[in-house]
User: Fold this.
Amino acid sequence: MAGKSIPIEVVAEGGNSLYASERKVYPRDIDGRYQRLRKLAVFVLLGLFYGMPWLHWGGRQAVLFDLPARKFYVLGVVFWPQDFVFLAMLLMIAGFALFFFSALAGRLWCGYACPQTVWTEVFLRIEHWCEGDRAQRMRLDAAPWSAGKAWRKGSKHLLWLLLALWTGFTFVGFFTPIAELAARAPLHWSGWEAFWIFFYALATWGNAGFLREQVCKYMCPYARFQGAMFDRDTLIIAYD
Assistant:
């Protein structure tokens, strides 16, 4: 007996559907002490990420995780697989510190040091540079397509993709000597090198360019249990 497919819609009280498409958020430009600290954190963290693979220490790359040789170079120290106990201790310290600072100052990690926050901030700067301030971006999105709109949107996505590719290239440069990786680019990259470069670039482009706050709402595990670390004395940002 052939069955019928019955459409199912989850409805909340009052008849409203629980599933709704996300509306694009247009953040307003603000300034102040904490915003300046946030920009400084972005500058320092991205400077370390993009710059560390190019630094040399003792005739070799300063930070290099050589997986085939099972050697992990961090400045002047060489770690072997049997030294992973130190990594476990470092992760435990980082975990306890995350709980401590969250209980003390709320979303300190989310606002200043989370990679999603850091790269989203840079992507927003590029968007602002190409499309204008909040009001201009809203008018541009509402306007019909034209040569000017296509130029602004295309320029933004081109810069996003270039930054995303640079990010993926730098990420792989922590596992393959980055100078050698650059000399072989792109025709002589191995299959795994090319895969991870483009995969990380696509993830950066998608997360920081499109998903943004949805990553925090639906994908981030830290956001799921963060409320359990708050108490009545925790510093929490509230919105009117």
